[in-house]
């Protein structure tokens, strides 16, 4: 039975694209971290991929590494405007406690729109960001650090 070349190429492309992304199943409602007097960081999604689209280009992770996308929602539960600095966020590997800082910050949209590392957040307001972190390829990210405070990421069993 002969299979047309187009179908083989299409099938190969689909298999390649589907194998590039790992989506981590997070435990629902257990990844809300109370940080600094009523500032809440919620990790509501996490995935890893060897490549990342950045608007009109694509970046590729170094050999042995992957890009972990951490989808976060920060909520200011105070009555004052606060400063948020995403460069103070990192992932740690559980074994060696090595820090892997945020490489890029994006707005939480379908298209990758860059955002600043530093921003302000008004009283009783929230914002969503996607934090892109270069992390070792074969390791599962289990610790999140925010300005020196560590939080264990909870996954579904």
Determine the strand fraction and express it as a percent band. Answer: over 45%
From the N-terminal CA to the C-terminal CA, the straight-line distance is 43 Å
Structural class: mainly beta
Rg on CA atoms, Å: 18 Å
Subunit arrangement of the protein: single chain
**Low-pLDDT runs:** 11-19
Helix content: under 10%
How many helical stretches?
A: 1
> What string gives the helices and strands in order?
HEEEEEEEEEEEEE
Major sheet, described briefly? 9 strands, antiparallel
Broad shape = globular
What does it look like?
The chain is mainly β and about 160 residues long. Helices cover about 10% and strands about 50% of the residues. The chain contains 1 helix and 13 strands. The strands form 3 sheets. Strands 1, 2, 3, 6, 8, 9, 11, 12 and 13 form a 9-stranded antiparallel sheet that branches. A two-stranded antiparallel sheet has the order 4-5. The termini are far apart. The model is unreliable at about 10-20 (pLDDT under 50).
């Amino acid at each position: 039975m002969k299979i047309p070349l187009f179908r083989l190429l299409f099938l190969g492309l689909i298999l390649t694209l589907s194998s590039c992304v790992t989506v981590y199943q997070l435990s629902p409602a257990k990844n809300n971290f109370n940080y600094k007097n009523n500032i809440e960081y919620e990790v509501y999604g996490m995935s890893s991929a060897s490549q990342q689209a950045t608007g009109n280009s694509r970046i590729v992770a170094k050999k042995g590494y992957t890009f972990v996308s951490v989808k976060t929602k920060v909520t200011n539960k105070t009555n004052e405007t606060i400063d948020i600095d995403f460069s103070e966020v990192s992932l740690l590997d559980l074994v060696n406690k090595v820090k892997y800082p945020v490489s890029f910050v994006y707005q939480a949209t379908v298209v990758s729109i860059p955002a600043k590392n530093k921003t302000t957040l008004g009283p009783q307001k929230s914002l969503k960001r996607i934090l892109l972190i270069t992390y070792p390829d074969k390791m599962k990210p289990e610790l999140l650090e925010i300005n020196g405070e560590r939080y264990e990421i909870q996954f579904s069993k």
